[in-house]
Amino acid sequence: MSGSNEPEKHLSKRPGYSRRYHFSCCVFLFRSLLNSQKWLSRNFDKILPEKFRLDGHRDYQERIVPNYLQENLVIYDVGGGKRPYLKFSEKNRIKATVVGIDINEEELNKAPEGAYDKLICQDIACFRGDNDGDILICQALLEHVNDVDAAFASFSSILKPGGLALIFVPSRNALYARLNMLLPQSIKKAILLLLYPQTEKKHGFHGYYHKCTPDELKALACAYNFSVIAEFYYYNSMYFSFFFPFYLVWRLGLLAFYSVAKEQAAETFVLVLKKETRQPILQNCEQGNRKAGYSQ
Predict the structure, then answer these.
(1) Which helix (H) or strand (E) holds 231?
(2) What pLDDT score does 295 carry?
(3) Distance of CA 214 to the CA centre of its chain
């Protein structure tokens, strides 16, 4: 029996073994605690109305965008980088021509082979198109753009009259967005890596959130000859699920915010915009501008 314990005794005497063992135990306990808090947060959400449980990004990807896809379209994927919206098989199935626009050439080059028919490495705020696009897909990009007005001018130049811009936006009004704007980039990345290591490759771009509220973007869309043909609002995100007491307080605060601000309390939202041949009715633009705090 004593001989069978020799390997364990030998390992325990190796330099650093004890420290590594205790570190592994601490990591395991920390991850277990995090998972328990996330489990509590998910289960608390089950008692809320469905509109407060809906995942906006998933709804955008799985329901909203597919609803507008047809065959033989020219699709601009703005900011898709190495993760284009359309998979190669789906792109071929609907015979789409996909143009990828991203400020980061390395990101574009990491996209799956054949995902894009054309690559354009340029800041969307500086790009001007040929008015040949049928669909523009823009998901979780505008919060990282410093000049959103210029980005909308670009959108208008990309799309042909009647073309659609399908835009998913994290709202500036969300608590996580406010924290994102306040914290230094290095600290934000460290916190996200610690609490959500599976999202390491999805974060790292600075967040400005300029005009990223429903009223401001709708007013801006009107100014650039777009009409809003559909809008969707979502009141769910999991940023604070790592600590259930904080998550509970945030959830109750969001419900209170919604009771007075309605869609302005959304964590994320989607706008489906149609490029018009002329500017939408002036009265509608003025109403949108007043809500957004603009003056003519």
Answers:
(1) strand 226-234
(2) 36
(3) 15
Burial 100-111 (b: 16+ CB within 10 A, else e): bbbbeeebbeeb
Q: Among 289, 275, 25, which Cα is nearest to 134's?
A: 275
DSSP letter, residue 281:
P
| Residue indicated by tokens 């198109």 | 129
Residue with tokens 């959103």: 148
H or E element in which residue 133 lies = strand 133-139
User: Helix (H, G, I), strand (E, B), or coil: what is residue 81?
Assistant: coil
Distances from the Cα of 296 to the Cα of 37, 51, 218, 221, 292, angstroms? 48, 35, 15, 15, 12
Helix, coil or strand: residue 295: coil
The domain ranges of the chain are 50-290
- For tokens 């799985």, the residue is 62
Q: In this structure, which amino acid lies at residue 211?
A: K
Phi, psi of 218 (to 5 degrees): -70, -40
Percent helix, strand, coil in the chain, to 5, is 50, 15, 35
The CATH homologous superfamily for domain 50-290 is Vaccinia Virus protein VP39 (3.40.50.150)
Instruction: Report d(CA 160, CA 162) in Å as an integer.
Output: 6
pTM of full prediction above 0.70: yes
**Cα torsion angle, 37, 38, 40, 41, sign:** positive
Q: What CA–CA distance (Å, rounded) separates 93 from 80?
A: 20
The parts of the chain modelled with pLDDT lower than 70 are 1-17, 21, 184-204, 279-296
Task: Tell me how far apart the alpha carbons of residues 57 and 139 are, in angstroms, rounded to a whole number.
Answer: 8
Q: Are strands 226-234 and 268-275 parallel, antiparallel or unpaired?
A: antiparallel
